[in-house]
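SEVERITY: medium
COMPONENT: batch folding queue
REPORTER: lab tech (J.R.)

DESCRIPTION
The queue accepted two submissions in a row. Attaching both inputs and their returned structure tokens so the on-call engineer can compare them side by side.

ATTACHMENT 1
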Amino acid sequence: MAIILSNKIKEPESTGLYLDDGWDYSKYYYAGYGMFSAGLSVGLTNIASGVSVGIAGSSCAIADAQDASLFVKILIVEIFASALGIFGIIVGIIQSNACEFPTFALNN
């Protein structure tokens, strides 16, 4: 996800400490917050996926020690828990598609 987000950032044509008049600052805010929300959603869903896989894996090991026939059933639950991370990456890619930084000033 970091590679996708880093490819979205473009350098403006005018080089200087401040941007000239005529720039669309709201588009900068939209792109910046869009990239922030994409990274945040991917990070939080992967944390949730890791915690849920850990809990499901722990219960899978305990259940397998008590009854071997429950292993496949709990393993399926663990696979669904790991799918949360994949869904988060898909949502992050969709969110980052709308992020485009302007590279030139608007015509007045």
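ATTACHMENT 2
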Amino acid sequence: MLNYYSFSILFVNIEYLWDSYLNYRQFKKQHEPNPSKQMQEVVDKQTFLKAQAYGRDKMKYTFVSNFYHLIIVNLTLFYSFYLYLWELSGQIISYFGYGPENEIIQSLVFFQIQTIIQTILEIPFSLYFNFVIEEKHNMNKQTLALFLTDLIKTIFLILIIGSPFLAAFVYIVQWGGESFYFYVWLMTLVFILFLQTIYPTLIQPLFNKMTPLEQGEKRDAIEALARKVNFPLNKLYVIDQSKRSAHSNAYFYGFFKSKHIVLFDTLLKQVDKDQLCSVLAHELGHWKLWHTQILFAISQINIFSILYVFSLFINSTQLFNDFGFYDSKPILVGLILFSMIFEPFNHAIAFAINFLTRQLEYDADSFAVELGYGDNLATSLIELQKGNLGEMNPDSWYSTYHYSHPPLSQRLEAIAKLLKNDQKKIH
């Protein structure tokens, strides 16, 4: 009979070896001194070498970080940390007159202690990444005080938002019987929509200052683009990302007929008006082609399926016994243990979703080209890759397994083909 404990340890270590192999392949590519023939046409050698050096430093960090997390996971399983933490949580609530029948309260204490421990274990790596690697390559703009303030706010939000959700999760599993997975899925759906609603108005302002994009040619061009594709633009914001990082991005949010676009101030510095519109044309392509809805539906099917399978394991005596739980079957711990044995399937699902999203990126690029932004989109992708020191020479295996976006060279090639086809149609 399959031992879930042994299976979890085996997969964790196999996963580490597989990731290490892919990382090694990528690390070798990051040592190549010259860009590919196609990339030589769009990036100078100095920028290429800077991106290569940045990639190597991040990969060295990944090697150490992955090994560190491998040790943590193995020690966690070997020394039955979850059993110890559950018993400790029980001892803590007993001081306040609560017993094991108060599983929700014990689960909340378990969750809060685990969150704090995980955060403490991650702090050294976060500090090194931001203030050594990112600083070395001129990507870090935040101060230590800002880093610590963000950290405190993040922990606070996780505990404040996560605790009620966890309490409701445990309660519904207890109340829902064999069909609890359906009710938990409904609650999760409502919770996700709730977070999407409050994030831009309540959570993001805790970390970034959001200001309306000032009047001018960039704003006029964006509003004209929105009207052209019938995008119901309501607000147009800029956030002060430059106080934390030199990396750039843009996104939109909102429901139904009220959409808002958010631009990083770093993006506005990296591209001109037409290039900015080409980037947004790509993003609006995701909206126009229903990519957001498609991915959301897939995520909900995935969540529902996982919860259903979890319902088949939650009362498994073997699952709990294999991890040292002989006297109790705590729901939260059961979810954690189930997640570990379900991890191989999660990797397969993530791989499939990455494959799909890469195809959707091509579709969004095609949408921008059809709007007449092909040349500007190609230029903006190049400028953003340079500005972010993105990978310009990725390994094929590594990018296929990890990337949610096609490599730059492949996107440029696809855009060039679309432009060439358009020229043929004209002539």
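NOTES FROM REPORTER
The chain has a mean pLDDT of 92.
No errors were logged for either attachment.
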